[in-house]
Design brief:
- The chain is elongated.
- The protein is built from three helices and 22 strands.
- Strand 21 and strand 22 form a beta hairpin.
- By secondary structure, the protein is mostly beta strands.
- It is 9% helix and 31% strand.
- A five-stranded antiparallel sheet has the order 7-2-1-10-11, with no helix packed on it. It has a five-stranded antiparallel sheet with strand order 18-13-12-21-22, with no helix packed on it.
- The N terminus is likely disordered.
């Protein structure tokens, strides 16, 4: 009996010791799921802005529903290092489904920042501080941006001309210059002299920073008239600029004949045209068909529409 009791006294502690050991193969909780990919992306960057058309960044929504990005932040190295505030998207900033939102970053606020013309890195983060996109862009020309092509894709390209707030198009397309398309020189209040621009491309073209002028601007005796920031001519469409305005750069087109020039933001003249005398107030001088090399006096004024004889 003593032997049995002794044996039990020896075995029972071993059982407790064995039960107290950690399980060599414990059940591990499943890893947290990866964060869902954001539908909001940096889509186009323009770093060669000026006072009329400051540096901007375009945001694109790849999703099928609109997204409110109020409180999201965008910034360059200063914001990343903490040496200056990050620029916050204001309340009411909504990116439509498969649409765009452009934010001017080089403004006069404390969070404003100019983008390096020689190239730089920018970040986009949600309101909770989660970085959802970043891109390092190269040195760019004054009429060139850096963007995803097609929109929202992983492919980045230099884009000339820029496509601010509109589609970047598809890869490997050739962009040809916009052209003077129709000219009206017999203006009077309230329909003053105007010039129509035609876009022969399948993508919209941003005319911000383009200049138009007559002999005075060409000789340097007066300023050249700049297209307003945000002026966009749609794909295969038209943009009309009234040139006879109350502005130092405004100019009337001589009804007895004149000449006008169109210049891109790089300072390159991309089109110019000598205009003959217009016989009556119901005529214009235009390309027929649109964008062709054939200019003629038309008896049908087609401001902002397809030219007709």
């Amino acid at each position: 009996m003593k032997k049995i009791l002794l044996a039990l006294l020896y075995i029972i502690p071993l059982i407790f010791i064995s039960c107290s050991r950690e399980d060599p193969n414990p059940t591990q909780p499943p890893p947290p799921p990866p964060p869902a990919a954001s539908s909001i992306k940096i889509n186009e960057v323009y770093s060669r802005g000026d006072a009329a058309n400051p540096d901007w960044i375009e945001i694109y929504n790849t999703g099928s529903t609109s997204v409110d990005i109020s409180g999201y932040k965008i910034y360059d190295n200063g914001g990343e290092s903490g040496s200056k505030p990050k620029k916050e998207f204001p309340t009411g900033s909504v990116v439509p489904a498969t649409g765009y939102l452009v934010i001017v970053v080089d403004d006069t606020t404390t969070s404003g920042f100019g983008l390096g013309s020689g190239g730089e890195k920018v970040w986009l983060e949600k309101s909770d501080g989660t970085v959802i996109d970043t891109i390092t862009f190269p040195a760019l020309g004054v009429d060139t941006s850096y963007g995803r092509r097609p929109d929202g894709s992983a492919n980045w390209e230099m884009i000339t001309p820029t496509t601010k707030g509109v589609t970047n198009g598809t890869g490997n397309i050739t962009i040809v210059p916009v052209v003077l398309n129709e000219i009206f020189s017999r203006g009077a209040d309230p329909d003053f002299d105007w010039i129509e621009i035609y876009n022969p491309n399948a993508v919209a073209v941003d005319l911000s920073g383009y200049l138009i002028y007559d002999g005075g601007g060409n000789l340097g005796t007066k300023p050249k008239l700049a297209f307003a920031a945000g002026s966009v001519v749609p794909a295969n469409g038209y943009f009309v600029i009234v040139v006879d305005i109350q502005d130092p750069a405004g100019f009337g087109i001589g009804s007895g004949g004149d000449e006008v020039w169109l210049e891109n933001p790089s300072g390159v003249v991309i089109d110019n045209q000598v205009i003959p005398a217009m016989p009556v107030t119901t005529t214009s001088y235009c390309r027929i068909p649109d964008g062709s090399t054939n200019w003629q006096i038309s008896n049908t004024i087609t401001k902002g529409a397809t030219n007709q004889p």
